[in-house]
UniProtKB/TrEMBL annotation:
GO MF terms, alphabetically ordered: channel activity
Phylogenetic placement of the source organism: Bacteria, Pseudomonadati, Pseudomonadota, Alphaproteobacteria, Rhodobacterales
Database matches in PANTHER family: AQUAPORIN NIP1-1-RELATED, AQUAPORIN NIP2-1
Organism: Flavimaricola marinus
Membrane topology: Multi-pass membrane protein
Protein name: Aquaporin Z
Superkingdom per UniProt: Bacteria
Keyword hit for Membrane: yes
Cell compartments where the protein resides: Membrane
Main location (coarse class): membrane
Membrane spanning residue stretches: 7-28, 48-77, 84-104, 124-141, 153-174, 194-214
Amino acid sequence: MPDPRRLTAEALGTAILVCTVVGSGIMAETLTDDVALALLGNTLPTGAILVVLITLLGPISGAHFNPAVTLGFAVLGQHNWGNVLPYVAAQIIGGIAGTVLAHAMFDQTLLQASQHVRTGPAQWLSEGVATFGLMFTILVGKRSAPESIAWLVGLYITAAYWFTASTSFANPAVAIARSFSDTFSGIRPLDLTGFVLAQLAGAVCATLFCQWFLKRP
């Protein structure tokens, strides 16, 4: 069983991340009817909070905040397999708590069933690509510029919001949490399976690729 402080860091970090995603989505939707402007208002806070969270909590738990990242590190032998399920549970619980907190701050029903349809091959491919890119950024960043990893991840997610058709969830815990929000950031619960499978596939592919790509001569 991992140190409770690590699990707390993973739960807290994922909660703040999801609260930022959902809260900024609600705020953006409230302030403008322009979908592009609303997406920008959702994107910038998400990238910014990732920089903050990874910088602050990385030394404590590794700042995964993402079951796909935890799985990738376990495949590489950089994370104990016995700690995978506790980490994932903390991330999912924290993510749902973040959704509830965002709803509470905007005086909305605390738990909602999202009606936002996100499905189809293009969406699944987007999630696979988004998660591959995220894992690639983390693994190569740790080798090339470890001191800049928080900025690299924050900037990657900011960019991936705009070059993927799915707006780059790239995180099963975040996807699950967003299924409880029938707002700008939501995803229909029925569509979760396709997203999660694509995310896990993208993370594993990136991990295996980087295992070869980063092998020292």
